[in-house]
Amino acid sequence: MAGLAVVVALASGASQWWRSHLAGSLGEQLVALARPGDIQMLSSTTCVYCTAARRWLTDQQVPFGECFIERDADCAARYQAMGARGTPTLLVRGQVQLGFSPQQVLDGLQARR
């Protein structure tokens, strides 16, 4: 039983290290490609996914802009005009992306160099 606990602990630790490694690598790639204005996030003040995306982008030092649909009339109008269905909604060099995925943002930046 103790052996199984050690194996589970090692697997869990390795999994956490791998996720951290991938996040750092994606963050470095995004920092290298993103310029101010390339990534805009339309957020809601109550959106936990927006908070997680904001935290990740900030921790990785990726330049991005953000507006809140409840606080900013222009933001709300852009959100409605694009027919967005949820938050966060990102504009990556003009391309609309629903939800936050570092890989999807990277793909958007690479596609529109």
From TrEMBL:
Matching Pfam families: Glutaredoxin
Residues of the Glutaredoxin domain: 41-96
Gene3D superfamilies membership: Glutaredoxin
Source organism superkingdom: Bacteria
InterPro entries according to UniProt: Glutaredoxin, Thioredoxin-like_sf
Entry coiled-coil feature ranges: none
SUPFAM superfamilies named among the record's database cross-references: Thioredoxin-like
Protein name per the record: Glutaredoxin domain-containing protein
Organism: Pseudaquabacterium pictum
